[in-house]
Design a protein that fits this description.
Layout lengths: L2 E2 L15 H14 L6 H10 L1 H8 L5 H21 L9 H17 L7 H16 L2 H27 L5 H11 L2 H5 L2 H5 L5 H5 L1 H21 L1 H7 L6 H9 L3 H28 L3 H23 L5 E2 L2
Parallel strand pairs: 1-2
């Protein structure tokens, strides 16, 4: 099944890191070594998803070490999502999801791989590699965002158990966390070799730009992954589903509404980045450039990956 690609057109061009194929081979090897792709069908799914290409799209100027760390993190997220979230019975069980979250928090906070789960071991490895590259502020920032992501999965499981989508405002707020996009934005300066201070990271102006970029990425994913989610998810939890069930829209109407919301958030991002660029701070200029890479790169990868199998229109 294919989904006709709606007219989502950010005014930014996408690039690809020249060492993407090198990162792809390294990520496939890393995932196999940690047991994430022990079953052949999982290795095939990882190849079809091509997380290294997503990393290459969203950080086209990173160091090879940064690109590979980002690629491995994308692989972890996609495989973890398939194992424990959308396509798993655990993803509809808040108690079981909480137990998995405890395992992952042990790896995240204390480096405890434990005997429970291959994903915990892989996460502990990622954190150790991050710690070797990052400042204490950057390490803490990433762990805080991953913690929020893990807790948001319990919310997702509760919503699936209830078989009732959230109200729109609740969905927008929680989707940011359960998408894991904030975890990726927390890595922007690490993988690209610069440092954004905590004061700037927490400033209202940077938060406005980052939130807009996150929403654009999340909602674009909700639209382009629709066919995949309808086919493989236990219970559909996405922006089109929320608009359809809460506002009485059919699928075509919901998709048009999603596209309009994405276009509006692109305008919000363009407005939000203006004071950051006008500040003359080269760190803020670099951060904005990488936010734009995330917006355009995620869309380009979504057209290319075998995970969603979208077609252009």
């Amino acid at each position: 099944m294919t989904v006709a690609l709606p007219s989502i057109d950010p005014p930014f061009s996408a690039r690809l890191h020249p060492l993407t194929s090198v990162a792809s081979a390294a990520t496939a090897k890393w995932a196999a070594e940690w047991g994430l792709t022990e079953r052949p069908e999982l290795a095939l799914r990882l190849r079809e998803t091509d997380p290294a290409r997503l990393a290459g799209r969203v950080c086209p100027s990173a160091s090879l070490e940064g690109l590979t760390l980002n690629s491995d993190w994308q692989a972890w997220l996609f495989l973890f999502d398939d194992a424990y979230c959308d396509e798993s019975e655990i993803g509809s069980d808040p108690a079981a999801t909480t137990e998995v979250t405890i395992w992952m928090l042990g790896a995240l906070e204390a480096g405890e791989a434990g005997p429970h789960d291959v994903f915990a071991g892989a996460l502990a490895d990622l954190c150790a590699r991050l710690d070797a590259m990052a400042s204490p502020v950057q390490r803490t920032r990433f762990r805080q965002e991953v913690t929020a992501y893990l807790y948001s999965l319990v919310w997702e499981a509760a919503r699936r158990r209830q078989r009732m989508p959230a109200q729109l405002a609740e969905y927008i707020r929680m989707r940011r966390h359960c998408s894991a996009v904030p975890t990726c934005l927390a890595l922007i300066d690490v993988v690209n070799g610069f440092s954004l201070s905590q004061e700037l990271w927490c400033s209202p102006a940077v938060r406005a730009a980052a939130d807009a970029a996150t929403d654009i990425t999340c909602w674009t994913n909700d639209v382009l992954s629709l066919a995949k989610e309808e086919t493989r998810s236990i219970e559909l939890l996405s922006l089109p589903a929320v608009l359809s069930r809460r506002q009485g829209l059919n699928q075509a109407e919901a998709l048009r509404a999603c596209t309009a919301m994405i276009d509006a958030r692109i305008r919000d991002y363009l407005e939000a980045q203006q004071p950051l660029l006008a500040s003359g701070d080269p760190v803020l200029a670099r951060f904005c450039a990488d936010l734009r890479h995330w917006i355009a790169g995620n869309l380009a990868w979504s057209r290319e990956t075998g995970r969603y199998r979208v077609t252009a229109r």
